[in-house]
User: Fold this.
Amino acid sequence: MTDKNKKLLISGDYMLLFGIGLAIIYWLIESVIHLFVSSDINFLQQLLGTSIYNTYTRIIILCLFVIFGSHVQYTINKRREAETALQESEEKYRKILESIEEGYYEVDTEGKFVFFNDSVCRILGVSKEELLGRDSSSYMDEDNQRKLAETFNEVADTGKPFTAFDCEYIINDGTRRIIETSVSLINDYKGNMLGFRGVARDITEKKDMERELLEYHKKLQASRSAAILGLAKLAEYRDYRTGSHLERIREYAKVIAQELSKNPEYADYIDAEYIEDIYNSAILHDIGKVAISDAILLKPGELTETEFEVMKRHTTLGGQALEVIESRTQGQSFLTIGKEIAYHHHERWDGSGYPKGLVGQAIPLSARIVTLADVYDALVSERSYKKAMEHDAVLEHIREGRGTQFDPDVVDAFLARMDEIKEIHHRLKDV
Ligand SMILES: [Fe+2]
Ligand SMILES: [Fe+2]
Assistant:
């Protein structure tokens, strides 16, 4: 209990006695005054009252003094209780602030620290004395100072708190720490802005771990892509020497998908993950050819009807193989798309393709994209058994197939990016 509260306690407890004392003094003075005015009546009579009216008057006044004293005592005690409760509450919150790992801070309108807990000092590696009154942006480089100022300004303008933003602080020993901070306004009872308050956490280690995890994930993706490409190439080599056919069609497929994603009809469907998946899985389109016999696969002349029926099975065989792998791995969306492509890359927009004879949008979009990429590359590339077709003739063939062999939207996206398609073909040209 503070000295102020102790004084309040003492003065409060004695106010009733004080009121009674005043009442007695009044009674005595009244008696003595009457004793001088009227000598016929002795002091005892004066003390008890010269008449019933006089006695009642004195009793009423005495009661008023007592009521006054008890009222003052009550008021003082209530105030004392309120101040004690406030002190206990402040003490409780002070202990909470000092015990939490997160830093709690308050800065004035100029961004200078006016209040903070020990965790802020620990996070920033500075003493209380150094931090008090110091500009919160003085531990940052220019970029982060600008970021902090923009955040404070936004909170001041909108009045809405900022739940979390990251800033890089340069600690006294030169190390950089990433601090996640919340910001909200401090207003007085009239609504005038006094400054900002918030909670700060050191998330440097978390960010480092996230970065390491991301790098690990990228390496894993790269090795996975390399393994898939190797596998797909082995399958492709059984058929004919195709050079960089697989590398090219995945690039074409990516460009077409990027262009289609600008179309509002596909914008929700084609996101960055979809584009990445189609890039990784397009090369698996003919994986089912590993199950086709050499006699059919490598036959120099035209295939008989029966042989062609066997050849067509590479779509379902490839799709089934990828389906089995997909069922044994979780969260690998590229395998789902790879399966669609393997099954349906010989379907035609008008329904005359195989293996299912699907029509239009019933054919998965990924397969519609890879179909065009595969046909384009096969036509513009030279093979051991055929010459390359003139580029203009290939484009004419594709335009003619718009709406029959190929999805019109896919053809439009392909033609819109023709410069990039040509550049890919030139860059990854077979030597
Ligand atoms: Fe095929
Ligand atoms: Fe192919």
